[in-house]
Design goal:
- This protein has about 450 residues and is of the alpha/beta class.
- The chain has four domains: about 1-180, Rossmann fold, CATH 3.40.50; about 185-240 and about 345-360, no CATH class; about 245-345, Arc Repressor Mutant, subunit A (Orthogonal Bundle), CATH 1.10.10; about 380-455, 3-Layer(aba) Sandwich (Trna Endonuclease, Chain: A, domain 1), CATH 3.40.1350.
- About 45% of the residues lie in helices and about 20% in strands.
- It has a six-stranded parallel beta sheet with strand order 1-8-4-7-6-5. The chain has a four-stranded mixed beta sheet with strand order 11-12-13-14, sandwiched between helices. The protein has a two-stranded antiparallel ribbon with strand order 2-3.
- Helix 4 runs parallel beside helix 6, helix 8 packs across helix 9 and helix 9 packs across helix 18.
């Protein structure tokens, strides 16, 4: 069973939209306690709130929390032994050096008592001792039906979590009873959070929060807890010495990719700067053939995604790429691009660059905000953009519509997204809509309008 929840976490001592996932986690715990042991996988990107959610869901009962740092197996077992003694009060022999023995001891304890075992960043065992997963599988298969352990694995490295639990050649394949995938906050929850901290916020404050955090709970928490409630204060906080934002993107991606990240970083940097087609990316990086790396970024790491004109079909070669994670898009555009300023500690210059470029950058991210709003509304069967290259006086210019949605009742709606609604030209958009309708929707009527910062 796989459940995808969007609005989960803890921000500035308040919880937002936690009811559904908490019910799911408590229900699986109750089943484990009442019948026999159950296995849950809790996954999501770094800073998304997996540990906080698990802690909240399982409070009030025995809760063994084991964090898998990248240390020797014997050192981890020493720490784990102390935690098990403290929480469960059971005898754990001194000198255990293999996780296999720790896990076997815990499952044995589950024969006479019920408890939650939360193993955080479990994918790190892949680097410490891959045999751990086979050991877990062997013990689990032999003991789960006669024990009452609510076993929860949590991890933030996408590729490894997919491999460990979804690869049919891996020992834990097919053994999970529940998988929860945590996503950033929805647009409506971001509005609620900002309103709770600044009742008189304006939509530019809201857009700045989205541009800089992408709805990731930890980043929002940092800004809210430090009173950063508008553009200037957010940028000033992010560009101070010691700010978590300065190297956050690098930490996330090196954790995911390891040391061989150079070409991938270059590709992501080019996409963040507006070079979004394969020829543009390859041209800016010395005409190297990068199709293989692009495929890995999209299919294995899930860091970029394809955009095609609506209804153009999977075989269409008219493809644009975008960075899937809004925060990483922001980080690459500024913190990675201007890393020399960070290295020489010229934080004020970096802050000025972000502030000066913000009107242009935020205008592009505003389109992403409205696309998410449309998805969250669940009123559409198709959502995308549309473009059709047309020859103009200066060569090839795209005839483009920012957002196109096919509603559940079949109505087609097109939207031009502008930060400033005064720049919207209905006549120009009408011509684009007519062109799109003739080429894509058989000339049918298409509703069109403008979405601006006023409509957030």
């Amino acid at each position: 069973m796989v459940v995808n929840f969007m609005d989960i976490n803890f921000v500035a001592m308040n919880y937002y939209d936690r009811e559904i996932p908490l019910k799911q986690l408590k229900a699986i715990r109750d089943k484990a306690f009442e019948s026999f042991s159950k296995m849950t996988v809790l996954k999501g990107r770094r800073r998304i709130g997996k540990t906080t959610l698990g802690t909240l869901a399982f409070e009030g009962a025995d809760f063994v929390y084991l964090f898998v740092g990248r240390r020797s197996e014997s050192d981890l077992c020493e720490d784990f032994s102390s935690e098990i003694r403290r929480v469960l009060g059971v005898f754990v022999p001194e000198g255990i050096t293999r996780f296999k023995d720790i896990f076997g001891l815990l499952m044995s304890a589950g024969e006479t008592r019920s408890f939650t075992l939360f193993i955080d960043e479990v994918q790190e065992f892949y680097y410490i001792n891959k045999a751990v997963f086979s050991d877990i599988q062997d013990i689990w298969d032999r003991t789960r039906r006669k024990t009452h352990v609510n076993l929860v694995f949590s991890g933030s490295t996408f590729t490894l979590m997919e491999k460990i639990f979804k690869d049919e050649h891996e020992p834990l394949f097919g053994r999970t009873d529940l998988t929860l995938e945590l996503e950033p906050f929805s647009t409506s929850v971001q509005k609620s959070i900002l309103a709770d901290h600044k009742a008189d916020y304006n939509n530019d404050d809201l857009l700045a929060l989205y541009c800089f955090t992408g709805g990731v709970p930890k980043y929002i928490e940092l800004l809210m807890d430090n009173g950063c409630l508008n553009l200037d204060s957010m940028v000033d906080y992010m560009t101070t010495p010691g700010s978590q934002f300065l190297d956050e993107g690098e930490k996330i991606l090196i954790q995911e990719m390891g040391k061989n990240y150079g070409t991938y970083f270059s590709i992501l940097a080019r996409i963040s700067s507006g070079e979004v087609t394969l020829p543009e990316i390859e041209g800016s990086l010395g005409d190297k053939s990068l199709g293989g790396q692009i495929r890995i970024l999209e299919e294995e790491y899930k860091l970029i995604s394809k955009k095609r004109p609506i209804r153009s079909g999977e075989n269409s070669k008219d493809v644009r790429y975008e960075i899937s994670d809004v925060f990483l898009r922001f980080w690459f555009r500024y913190f990675h691009r201007y890393r020399s300023l960070v290295e020489i500690k010229n934080y004020s210059a970096l802050a000025n660059i972000i502030k000066e470029d913000y009107p242009t950058y935020s205008g592009r991210i505003l389109e992403r905000w409205f696309r998410e709003r449309m998805m969250e509304s669940q009123k559409y069967s198709e959502i995308g953009g549309w473009w059709n290259p047309t020859k103009g006086k200066k060569g090839i210019a795209p005839n483009e519509l920012d957002l196109v949605g096919v509603a559940l009742d079949g109505t087609v709606k097109a939207f031009e997204v502008k930060r400033n609604k005064s720049k919207y030209s209905p006549l120009e958009v009408e011509a684009k809509v007519r062109d799109m309708s003739n080429k894509v929707f058989g000339g049918r009527e298409v509703e069109f309008s403008c979405l601006s910062i006023e409509d957030m």
